[in-house]
Design a protein that fits this description.
- 2 copies of one chain form a homodimer.
- The first copy, chain A, has a single domain, classed as Rossmann fold.
- The first copy, chain A, is of the alpha/beta class and 206 residues long.
- In chain A, α1 packs across α8, α2 packs across α3 and α2 packs across α4.
- Chain A has 8 helices and 5 strands.
- A 5-stranded parallel beta sheet of chain A has the order 2-3-1-4-5.
- The interface between A and B is medium-sized, with 29 and 29 residues.
């Protein structure tokens, strides 16, 4: 079984790269599917799981989701529970034994016994803002300033959660096989080269 | 003209990757040749230039080279002069207009107007020690402990010189197009994949 993990800065195009890579390699692809499974297993709303785990926005969780929540401490506890369920779901995916690409969620560390090929994707702030602005729907009403703040918050939380849970530093190049700066790339143009490196990795003599 | 620059941690296999990449791409290759040219232009001994610029070992420069040196300050001054000559030599290489791979020497920053493709090569400490031990000649009498110290000193100096001269942080993934961790690779096996990414870069629509 071959597993590719993609960790990424918010807005760097890591998700798109993961999706395209899975298509080119003919691997299964896991991203939001993990959220749905966690929601299903825990009997919670997928949007709530997404907000807590992906947007790290539990401080701004809409009231509809907070009905039974007494304090932010309770939400933090809920986050921990969801992270544990996420770990379980990711381990289940690996046990299925299918070749796959998994985006985010510290899968590189969680699945290290399976020797995945680990990619980190980064980009300059301006490039990330440009990429996000291009993809935003009009009704999101995002400004570069708002996006920059959102970006910084999400990456800060990703870093904190990873550092605390795994002891392995997020974004530190020694913790990944390859780190790609997408600043001047179209992800579509980059994908075949990344496919080449992944194929080379799994085809190498050990 | 296409320029590929390779910056690297000591012992990571960056030089070998540069050489192999130049062979595969049929590009000119510049590494020690730069030292010889600096020595020729400044009328100094190539071993002296190498020691001052590459090994950053001016504190241990053999007495034969220190005949006219009054203090370590003088040597530091000499180092600055050699760095300026090195900058000139690298700019000359670019002006020749041939496709080339340049290893080290902050060529990525010095030649940024030529839009080079910039690679950083790193590896885990144990992998770097192993690589160096394999390549050391018996009479070098190197131990892993000595190597580790040498490695740390050289990388520290590379980092300091780069940070001071260019204002661009050495080894920070946002400053390179791709960062490769060679820990579990044979450089020979890795090269075709890096060639693919370089070709993709220079072949992309802008």
């Amino acid at each position: 079984m071959r597993i590719v993990t993609i960790s990424r800065e918010f807005g760097s195009g890591g998700r798109e790269l993961g999706k395209r890579l899975a298509d080119e390699l003919n691997f299964d692809y896991y991203d939001r599917e993990i959220i749905d499974t966690i929601a299903h297993n825990t009997g919670t709303d997928p949007n709530y799981v997404f907000t807590v785990l992906e947007n790290h926005g539990w401080k701004n969780i809409p009231l509809t989701f907070r009905q039974s929540v007494k304090s932010s401490l309770t939400v933090q506890y809920a986050q921990t529970e969801l992270l544990i369920e996420q770990k379980r779901v990711i381990e289940e995916i690996a046990k299925h034994g299918n070749d796959c690409v998994i985006v985010g969620r510290n899968a590189d560390v969680l699945l290290q016994d399976y020797c995945p090929f680990n990619i980190f994707v980064c980009a300059d702030v301006q490039a990330k803002i440009r990429r996000c602005m291009e993809r935003a729907t009009q009704d999101e009403n995002l400004t570069p300033k708002v996006l920059k703040r959102k970006m910084q918050n999400i990456d800060k939380q990703r870093k904190q959660i990873r550092d605390i849970l795994t002891g392995s530093k997020w974004g530190e190049p020694h913790n990944y096989h390859v780190t790609i700066n997408t600043t001047d790339w179209e992800i579509k143009q980059l994908t075949p080269a990344v496919t080449a490196i992944v194929n080379r990795w799994f085809g190498r003599k050990q």
